[in-house]
Specification:
Structural class: alpha/beta
Distance between the termini: 80 Å
Shape: globular
GO molecular function, one term: hydrolase activity
Keywords: Membrane, Transmembrane, Transmembrane helix
CATH architecture of the largest domain: 3-Layer(aba) Sandwich
CATH topology of the largest domain: Rossmann fold
Helix content: 25-40%
Strand order of the largest sheet: 2-1-3-4-5-6
Transmembrane segments: 12-32
GO biological process, one term: lipid catabolic process
Low-confidence stretches: 12-36
Protein name: Lipase
Number of strands: 6
Strand content: 5-15%
Number of domains: 2
Order of helices and strands: HEHEHEHEHHHEEHH
CATH class of the largest domain: Alpha Beta
Number of helices: 9
CATH superfamily of the largest domain: Alpha/Beta hydrolase fold, catalytic domain
Radius of gyration: 23 Å
Mean pLDDT: 87
Length: 262
């Protein structure tokens, strides 16, 4: 086909094809570098700041009790103020968490952080680790009553009152595009040690077992303290839950606590 073209046109076409091949090759290298970049886990022996990530539409006040308990243990604690009243795009919230982490590391002169994500804040923390460089900065990630596989309540809200279901509400529906992608393959990417704590009394994360996180140390409060009642909203303020969280943020490896916390 090229032989039928005039010499000048043939040279032009060959030049265009060569440039296209270079561009495709460059894109392939960039993609390969992005996916091949290995995460180097941080040391588990050094405790840095603790960042508390609030849940859907919850603001920061609900985490003050947990923050106070951790500060009483000598920890440097910051409650992250997320954009969009915690109801906007979860990936954007993950980016905001990433910025808060960098500032906390610079302020404290630390090399790693511990992150505790309450409710949807746990999903935000997972997005940060997977997509925003958190794997090489997080020592521990603890989630409290997080709808890792969505909540039927979000789906119901979208069906009954779609105008009252903001972006994060849509993303927290079971089998949403965001959750389907987040849970495809490894639910707990390389980097931090992962813990998921939840309650069987949850009426916001429906079913409560949506908080199961494959690859994490995963346990319910009731498996440690049978008969202990704690709702979704009480999780970050309940003394038993707080004791369980504190145990996961020490230097020793995460472990299911004993009945002494009950």
């Amino acid at each position: 086909m090229l032989d039928a073209l005039a010499p000048a046109r043939r040279r032009f076409l060959l030049g265009v094809l060569a440039l296209a091949l270079v561009a495709v090759a460059g894109l392939g290298v960039a993609i390969w570098r992005t996916h091949d970049k290995a995460v180097e886990p941080v040391s588990q022996e050094t405790q840095g700041p603790v960042l508390l990530v609030p849940g859907y539409g919850g603001g920061t006040a609900g985490l003050e009790v947990l923050a106070g308990a951790l500060r009483a243990q000598g920890r440097d604690v910051e409650i992250v103020d997320l954009p969009g009243n915690n109801t906007g795009d979860l990936d954007r919230q993950a980016g905001a968490l990433g910025k808060a982490v960098i500032l906390a590391l610079q302020r404290a002169g630390a090399r790693s952080v511990d992150v505790v994500g309450y409710s949807a804040g746990g999903v935000v923390a997972r997005l940060w680790v997977r997509d925003h460089g958190g794997g090489g900065l997080a020592r521990r990630v603890v989630t409290l009553g997080s709808p890792h596989h969505g909540s039927d309540l979000a789906g119901l809200g979208s069906d009954v009152a779609p105008d009252s279901c903001p972006r994060a509400c849509e993303q927290l529906q079971p089998d949403s595009d965001l959750l389907r992608a987040l849970n495809a393959g490894d639910e707990t990417p390389t980097g931090p040690k992962w813990v998921s704590i939840w309650t069987t009394d949850d009426r916001v994360v429906v079913p409560p077992s949506s908080s199961n996180l494959d690859g994490a140390l995963d346990f319910t409060i009731q498996s440690v303290c049978p008969g202990h009642e704690v709702s979704h909203g009480q999780l970050p303020q309940d003394p038993v839950v707080i004791a369980a969280v504190i145990r996961q943020l020490v230097v020793a490896d995460p472990a299911v606590p004993g009945p002494e916390i009950c």
